[in-house]
Amino acid sequence: MKTKTVKRRTTRAKRRPAKLWQLRLYVTDSTSKSVAAFTNLKKVCESQLKGCYRITVIDLVKHPELAKGDQILAVPTVVRRLPQPVRIIIGSLSDTAHLLVGLDLRPAV
Amino acid sequence: MKTKGSKSTTPMTLLPKCPTGIQGLDEITGGGFPRGRPTLVCGSAGCGKTLLAAEFLVRGAAQFGEPGVLMAFEETEAELKANVASLGFDLDGLVRRKKIVIDYVHIEPSEIQESGEYDLEGLFVRLNHAIDSIGAKRVVLDTLEALFSSLANEAILRAELRRLFRWLKVKGVTAVITAERGREQFTRHGLEEYVSDCVILLDHRVNDQIATRHLRVVKYRGARHGTNEFPFLISNEGISVLPITSLGLNHKISSARIATGIPRLDSMLGGRGFFRGSSILLTGTPGTGKTIVAANFAQAAALRGERVLFFSFEESPNQIIRNMHSIGLRLEPLVKQGLLRFHSARPSLYGLEMHLATMFKEIATFKPAVVIVDPITSLMDAGTDSESKGMVTRLIDYLKGGQVTSLFTSLTQGGHSLQQSEMAMSSLMDSWLLLQDFEGNGERNRVLYVLKARGMAHSNQIREFLISDRGIDLVDAYIGPSGVLTGSARAAQNSLEKASILAIQQEGARRKRELERKREAIERQISGLRSDYESETMELRRVDEQVGTRALTLTTERAASGRLRQADAKASVSTRGGSRNGKNGRIHR
User: How many independent structural domains does chain B possess?
Assistant: First the structure.
C-alpha cells in the first residue's frame, strides 16, 4: 500500500510541472494566524511547486457565504482544489512536515 | 395545557423565557427555555434529541414568529427534512419561506490535516452569516460533539466551544445544543461545563420489552422548574411531555348523578347511581361479569343520548357487541348512531405513554361523556407499577377535568391478597364495586357489592348478581348465621325458611284453636256458674216472698186477734177513720 502511494507520488511528481495547483486559503481578516498561514504556504509552494500553483485568499469576514461551500470550520484552512482529490489542511501551517503530508507532497509517516 | 397556564404564572420580573411550543415542556420549565441563553439537551442515541431541537425551531418559526438556524453536524439537510416531515413539520416550506436556515456542517477527518494553530472562526462566520441572513432568534446545534471526532486538537476545540457559547449569549439567540449522553457525566465530552443555564436530560428506557422515553430538567439556572422525570412521547404531532405532578386537584365537581343501567345497582348507590364525572373501579375475578356491567353502563348512557367511548384491551368491538347481544344488550344500533365508539388495541402494541396519548387523542376528538376502560389491568401490565399508577392518575385527572365519567374494570386473580394490590389504584377512584364469585355446592355464583362510594350513602350488602338472557338482575343474597348463601343454596335456604315459617304459622293456628277451645270451656263454665247463681237467687227470692207473706199473715192474724181482744181498737179505728175522713173531706170540698 505504502509503495503504491509512493509510486503514484513519483509519477505525479514527474507530471507535476505540467499541472496547475489550485489552492484556496480561507482566512478571517489579517490576524496573525492568517498572515502566518499565507507566509508558510507561500514558502512551501515556492520550494515545491514553483511556477505551477495559484493561491486564492478568501476573507470570510467579507464573504461569509463562501464558508459553506468548502465546509470551512477552522481558520485558517487551505483547500487543495486541484489536483484531485480535495485535500484540506487547517492551522497556521507552521508545521511544514504536516503541511507537506496534507498537500500530498510527502507520504504520511 | 401547554402555554397558557405557564404564561400567566410567570411574573415579568423573572428570567425571560422562550416558549418551545412543545406540549407539556413549557409547563415543566415554567414557560420554556431561557431566552437568549444556550440550553443543553443531552441523551443517548435514539432519545429524540434532534427531534426536540427541531420542534423547538419549527414551532418557534411557525407559531412564535422567531426564525431559526439549524446547524447540523450529523444529518444532511435532506435527511433532516425527511425525518421531521414524519412528525408533521413542514421544514422544507419554512426553509423556502426563509424562516429557517439549515446549515449542514460536515468534516471528513481523513481529509483533514492539521498543521499549527487554528481556531473555529469559520464556524462562527457561518453561524453568524446564517443568523443574520434571516434575523434568527433561535439556534440549534445538532450535535456539536461531532467536532470532537473531526478535530484532533481538543485543547483548541474546548477553548473555541467556550468562546462559541459566550458568543451565542452575546448574540442574544436562544440556542439548543444537543449532545450524546456520557458514561459518568451528562455529555460524553463534558459540554455541560460550558452550558450552565439549562440542561435537559432525555432518556429512553426499556422495561419488560416496552420502551418509554423520559425527560428531566436537570438544571435551570434562575428559574424554578419541575425536577421530576416526565415521560414523553414522539407522536405524529411532535413531542408531547406528559407531566403528572403538574396536574392539580381542582376539577369542577358536579353533583348530578347518572344511572348505571342496572336499577338495583342504582338503589344500592343511594338510589340514583354514580356522580357525573366520577371515576369508578370495577374489580372482579375472571368471569364475574365486569364487561357486562360496563356494557350496561355504556348502553344506559348512550340511550340517554350521551357519547360513550369504550376502550377495550381484550376483545374486539364486534366480539363485545356479539357477546352483549346474548344477554339482551343491543349495542350495534348505538354504534351506528355514533353514540358509542369502541377503541380496541392490544396492550402490548406499544408502551403506556403511547396508549395514553392515543386515548387522550380519542377522547379529545370524540368528546365522550362516559369513558370505559376494559380492563385497566391489562393496560397496566404494559408498564411498571409506578408508571401505570402515574398513567391512571393522568388519565383520571384528564377525564375529571372534562367532567367525563370513567369506569375502569380491573381483573383480579381472586383471594383477598390481590385486593390489596389494587389499593394503589383504588385510592384514585371515587367508587369501587367488587364482583366476586362464591363457590360451593358444586356451583359458582356471582355477587356484587359496593366497596366504597365517595360522597353518597350506599348499601353495605352483598347482592347476588344474576346474568340471564334478559340482562343483569341483582337479588338479595341470603346472609344469615350460616354465612352468605347464593344460587341454589340460597333457593334451598329460601324454601327452608318458607317451610319453617309455615310450621310456625301452623303452630300459631293450632294454639289459637286451643285457646279458642279453652275460652269456650271457660265460657261454658261461666254460664253454668251463672245459672247456678241465678237459681240460687230465685230460691232466695222465693224465700223472701215466703217471709213477707208469713209476716203479713202474722200481722193480719195479730190484728184479728187484737180486734178480737178489743185492745186499743179506738186508736186504730180513729187513725183509720181520720184518714178516711180527710180524704173524704177533700173530696167533699
Answer: 2
For residue A69, is it within any domain? yes
Supply the range of the domain harboring residue B448: 257-476
Determine the pLDDT at residue B419: 53
Q: Taking CB atoms and an 8 Å cutoff, what residues of chain B touch A33?
A: 116-119
What are B33-50's pLDDT values in tens digits? 999 989 999 888 888 888
Residue A106 contacts B where some CB pair is shorter than 8 Å: no
Q: Is the dihedral angle over the CA atoms B92, B94, B96, B99 positive or is it negative? A: negative
Please tell me which residue of chain B has the smallest CA distance to A72: B122
For residues B447 and B302, membership in a common domain is answered with: yes
b (16+ CB within 10 A) / e for B155-179: ebbbebbeebbeebeebebbbbbbb
In degrees and rounded to multiples of 5, residue B250 shows phi and psi of: -135, 50
Please tell me whether residues B179 and B286 are part of one structural domain: no
Beta carbons within 10 angstroms of residue A58's beta carbon? 18
| Comparison of pLDDT for B208 and B80, the residue scoring more | B80
Q: Taking a C-beta distance cutoff of 8 angstroms, is the pair A32, A90 a contact? A: no
Q: How many CB atoms lie within 10 A of CB B307?
A: 18
CATH number of A16's domain: 3.40.30.10
The full length of chain B comes to 589
8 A C-beta contact, residue B39 and residue B195? yes
B228 and B374 co-located in one domain: no
Burial of B302 per CB tally in 10 Å (0-12, 13-18, 19+): buried
Encode pLDDT of A25-65 as tens digits: 998 877 788 888 888 888 888 888 878 888 888 888 888 88
Q: Where are the alpha helices (DSSP H) in B31-182?
A: 49-63, 77-85, 91-96, 121-134, 146-150, 154-171
Q: Do B118 and A76 touch (CB under 8 A)?
A: yes
ipTM (interface predicted TM): 0.80
Same domain, B181 and B322: no
CB-CB neighbours of B457 under 10 Å: 9
Is residue B85 within 8 Å of residue B128, measured between CB atoms?
no
Q: What is the grid cell recorded at B198?
A: 439549562
Q: B408, B442, B476: which is the final residue of a domain?
A: B476
Enumerate the residues of chain A whose CB falls inside 8 A of the CB of residue B167.
none
Mode of pairing for the β-strands spanning B112-114 and A87-90: parallel
Q: Are residues B111 and B214 in the same domain?
A: yes
Is it true that the peptide bond before A83 is cis, omega within 30 degrees of 0? Answer: yes
| CA-derived radius of gyration, chain A | 14
Beta-carbon separation of B115 and A74 below 8 A: no
Query: What's the CA gap between B466 and B472, in Å, rounded?
Result: 6
Question: For chain A, what is the domain count?
Answer: 1
Question: If you count residue pairs, one on A and one on B, with CB atoms under 8 Å apart, how many are there?
Answer: 102
Cβ of B129 within 8 Å of Cβ of A67? The answer is yes
pTM, entire model: 0.64
Say yes or no for a CB contact (<8 Å) between B121 and A93.
no
Q: Does B307 share its domain with B418? A: yes
Q: Which residue of chain B has the CA closest to A77?
A: B118
